[in-house]
Amino acid sequence: MRLLLSVPSGVLRDVAVARVDALTTAGAWTLLPRHADAAAVLRPGLLRFVPTPDDANAAPSDGHPATADGGAREAAGETFVATDHGVLVKVGDVVRVASERAVVAGDLADATRTLREHLTARSEGERRARHALARLEADLVRRLGEIRRAS
Q1: Cβ contact 11:57 at 8 Å
Q2: Could you tell me if residue 127 is inside a domain?
């Protein structure tokens, strides 16, 4: 089987796999070779895949390192990917996963650390966005008050 993992900015992984495990809205799924064609909506969580031995050392299609720390953990066995909402489609020998955000984390310990760092950075960005929105709303209310007083 071939796993094609993509995000809006491009392809994160294109790798031969022996197994793919994913959390879907219908429950946990395990896809093996010769599995029936299927489609599912992914829940935020960890997607796990096991590269085939002949493709375990293959480079990612986009030149990004295999893990957050630059290690090639795919050769060691299972690899974890933290995904946001997404879609999984299996047709024939190809499993396509499309997600708005995904982080290839390597082994489970790396996945936990990488996901925590990613969520912390995301939370900080969201906090700044909420602060900027609050300032804009306050400015709008102030200006509407000035217009009302002027008329």
Answers
A1: no
A2: no
